[in-house]
Amino acid sequence: MKRRKIIRIGIITAVAGIIIAGATGFYLFNMPHRNVQSAKTDYQITAKALVAEYLENADAANEKYLASDGDSKIMEVTGTIHKIAEDFSGKKVIILQGKNDKAGVSCTFSGDVVALSPGATVTVKGVINAGASYDTDMELYQDVVLNNCTLVI
Known about the structure:
about 150 residues, single chain, CATH 2.40.50.140, 2 domains, five-stranded mixed barrel, 3 helices, two-stranded antiparallel sheet, 8 strands
């Protein structure tokens, strides 16, 4: 009798744990995404100044712009379009970079982009995901990365 009671309590506890874990997973999966376009801009900066800030002191820049909880800063970055491309999922990506700059700002757009051409100066609003750095193994500079971008008109 005592053994059955222990097994019953164990089964009830396991089922309750599975239900709670499933409900938590369902909630997190269906949680609304952050609306970057309607949110307040935290920083307005030029692409050149942002890259320089990261190359000068990456730790201080990460402290200022990135958040470990996934709520990184929303930025408006102004710069000259160096290159226009598409990522692997078909989203438009523009690189804001001056002719003599070591690195630039890679802006991935979440929606459609109006016709743009290299050499045009634009302001892009997005969430910063990574900062510029220098890879000593490959001897290349890596760009600042902005996601969920839109053009500021």
